[in-house]
Specification:
globular, alpha/beta
Length: 743
């Protein structure tokens, strides 16, 4: 009973330690209660058209093709004649939701979203859409709803296509963008015969938002260098050209429309995003129309030393780079609405074509808006600082941002010290319990030695004759699992071929995949409980599922690891057999009143330590060999194409979470009888201080996964040992056979 209470208390302590990192590292930096700030001068634009080409890399738009011609002639003409351009530097995680939040709300990823999923921001926030008079949005159901939900009032209107259209196996994902352009055209045409709608459109501070997902979807499915991805850029360019013409015609070419074209994130050459590679963080930014500088020709070398100007053949055009969050105050300034309350963006003055007074007032509003956040964080009641110049405004913005970061992490040291004391206290308590349990009673010590010898002798006596292996055939489920592995090796190949031909996911392949997944834990229970029969059945069943979730050479990892562990088990069995007869029997007959062979005792203990380290090595290799839980935040959707191709983050993430522990489970199944305890808590503090709340979701997730893995190792092994016991000792009989005895 005391041991049960001990394990329950230990479980509670570990749960508390796990929850502590979310209170210390992953609290929302957003604050509320600030007063909105806006320039008192009239804005240059009455309306804003924002176009976000999801997943568009900067080089894919700016760099000429092999023939020296551009893929986007209209947008290129904007850069060379009517507008300003640059590179928008995104921050990790380079995902769609945080990217759009940075663009439209002006702040970067809210780290408290670590446990909230991809769909919505965990805390309500202000945005350019919320501050506008009206906002009309067209695009993906994954992005638009969160801006409508957070808006005060009902002035944000969203038009989305069904989620089922976001299919990576689609014959042409560019149809998503075609749908958006067609809907916007229809909307503008209807305004000509709808006086009420036209009246709303004629008012100032209006925003039109187009979210174009086709480029991102084609990039995931076919990679950014594919013809599908590049042709989608041409489609977007022609669509923007036609749309601008319709807008100007609808409003009588009044010169009061501002245009912003950009992307939420880029994409790697292998079709993923989420981390911090330049191909993911460098996105295009084009701004033109009312209140924006036209193209600026330059003859002197520009300040950028990354070599992109030469590669893109744009050395003669002024390039103005910004941070992604800077676009929110830029849009607010152009149409004269308050900067979003939680924005940390700095107004890029180089884009504005207006008076110095307007720039100064806009910059002042930007500075006060950020200072308001600092005041709320610091709980100040008033402020006597007078900001007179743009340079002072920039300085104040920097200090205010530092203050926001300081007070956001104000309690981190105190809470961290508390957790350290908890860790050390718990570790000390565990050591005391172990010492008390194992050395306080001589009788208890002898009982432990006796039990060890009995178990060792029982395992030796129960060895089966060789004839049993000759007479007994491998059970049918084992052979079934081997015809099964062959099928599961064929399914990914067949699926890949079908997707390459743009024929979609074959229904038969999908049915085989889900059936295999569902039966992978049940089939081993039908086989013999003999060690290698059962281990082979488990290996084949789990390998079948792993093959379906593999994208390449990673499929070789489980067989190689399993072979290595089979060899390890054989070596350990031989070692335990030789030492179990001589060493352990000798240890049981030791007379402590006489001289003791200390060398023999040390050797036995060293063998135990060696087995423990090999166990830890294998389980870490199994878990991190082809990735870990953190990689789910930046995964290649091709891994789950055998199961589904329609975008569903929860099912896809669940399949990846099922895939990652597979090798770990195989290892524990093979070695669960070798006990490893009390070597985990010492590493907890090390990984506790390595938890980070910045960087990509991959970086954040990696730090969390390291901490959680080390902290919960003991509990994890206990649960796996329970499952392993069921898989290795339990057996399910689908029918009964009568055993016949002959005289």
């Amino acid at each position: 009973m005391r041991m049960i209470m001990f394990f329950l208390v230990g479980l509670l302590v570990h749960v508390i330690f796990f929850i502590s990192i979310f209170d210390i590292y992953f609290t929302s930096p957003l604050v509320h209660g600030m007063a909105p700030q806006v320039s008192p001068l009239p804005p240059p634009a009455s309306r804003l058209l924002l176009v976000v080409a999801d997943g568009l890399r900067a080089d894919s738009l700016y760099k000429p093709d092999a023939n020296g011609s551009t893929r986007a002639p209209y947008l290129r003409s904007v850069m060379e004649e009517t507008g300003s351009w640059g590179v928008s530097h995104t921050r990790v995680p380079t995902e769609s939701r945080p990217g759009h939040v940075a663009l439209i709300a002006g702040f970067y990823e809210d780290v408290s979203a670590v446990a909230k999923g991809w769909k919505e921001n965990p805390v309500e926030f202000d945005s350019v859409f919320n501050e506008s008079r009206h906002t009309w949005c067209w695009g993906s159901p994954d992005i638009l709803p969160m801006f409508a939900k957070g808006a005060s009032g009902d002035h944000v209107y969203t038009y989305t296509y069904p989620a089922e259209r976001e299919d990576f196996a689609s014959t042409d994902a560019s149809r998503l963008d075609t749908w958006v352009f067609d809907e916007v055209k229809s909307f503008l045409q209807s305004a000509r015969v709808n006086s009420s709608l036209m009246s709303s459109l004629q008012k100032d501070q209006n925003v039109f938002f187009l979210h174009l997902l086709g480029i991102d979807t084609n990039g995931h499915a076919h990679r950014p260098m594919s013809q599908e991805y590049l042709e989608n850029i041409r489609l977007v360019d022609s669509g923007v050209k036609e749309l601008v013409s319709m807008v100007e015609d609808l409003f009588g070419n009044d010169g009061r429309t501002a245009y912003v074209f950009t992307s939420d994130h880029g994409m790697t050459n292998w079709g993923s995003h989420g981390a911090g590679h330049p191909s993911e963080t460098l996105t295009p930014l084009l701004v033109w129309g009312a209140g924006v500088h036209t193209a600026q020709r330059v003859t002197e070398p520009q300040k950028y030393s990354d070599g992109y100007l030469q590669e893109w053949q744009l050395e003669g055009l002024r390039r103005v780079d910004v941070n992604q969050a800077d676009i929110a105050p830029l849009m607010s300034s152009l149409i004269g609405v308050p900067i979003p309350l939680n924005s940390v963006g700095v107004l890029p003055l180089q884009y504005l074509n207006n008076s110095d007074q307007f720039k100064a007032e806009s910059m002042y509003s930007n500075a006060i808006q950020i200072l308001e956040q600092f005041k709320v964080k610091y709980n100040m009641e008033d402020n006597n600082i007078e900001l007179l110049t743009i340079s002072l405004c920039r300085s104040l913005i920097g200090h205010a941002l530092e203050g926001l970061s300081y007070y956001h992490t104000y309690d981190r040291f105190f809470l961290g010290c508390s957790v350290v004391l908890g860790f050390t206290g718990w570790t000390s308590y565990v050591v005391l319990v172990i010492l008390k349990t194992h050395v306080s009673s001589k009788t208890l010590w002898w009982m432990g030695v006796g039990a060890t010898l009995l178990i060792g002798m029982f395992l030796i006596i129960q060895r089966s004759p060789v004839t049993y292996y000759i007479y007994c055939l491998l059970p049918v489920p084992v052979w079934y699992s081997m015809l099964h592995v062959a099928v599961c090796a064929y399914v990914p190949t067949s699926t890949h071929s079908s997707l390459q031909l743009k024929q979609g996911l074959p229904l038969l392949n999908q049915m085989i995949s889900w059936t295999t997944l569902g039966s992978s834990l049940f089939v081993p229970l039908l086989s013999s409980t003999r060690l290698f029969h059962r281990l082979l059945s488990i290996f084949l069943s789990l390998t079948a599922t792993y093959l379906l979730l593999s994208t390449g050479s990673e499929a070789l990892f489980p067989p190689v690891l399993s072979w290595l562990m089979f060899v390890w088990i054989n070596i350990e069995q031989e070692a335990m057999l030789s030492q179990g007869i001589s060493g352990r029997q000798e240890l049981s007959t030791l007379d402590f009143s006489e001289n003791i062979d200390i060398t023999k005792i040390r050797q036995l203990k060293l063998d135990d330590i060696r087995r423990s380290y090999f166990f830890v090595f294998f389980i870490i290799t199994a878990f991190f060999g082809t990735g870990n839980i953190a990689s789910i935040n930046s995964f290649d959707p091709a891994s789950v194409y055998c199961f589904l191709t329609v975008f569903n983050p929860f099912i896809m993430g669940g399949l990846m979470m099922w895939k990652v522990p597979h090798p770990t489970h195989k290892h524990t199944t093979m070695s669960y009888h070798m006990k490893v305890h009390y070597r985990v808590d010492s590493g907890m503090l090390h990984f506790f201080f390595l938890v980070q709340d910045y960087g990509s979701w991959l970086d954040i997730g990696t730090s969390i996964s390291h901490y959680v893995i080390v902290m919960s190792m003991t509990i994890f092994l206990m649960l796996l040992s329970l499952m392993t016991h069921i898989l290795t000792s339990g057996r399910v009989s689908l029918w009964r056979t009568r055993k016949m005895h002959f005289p």
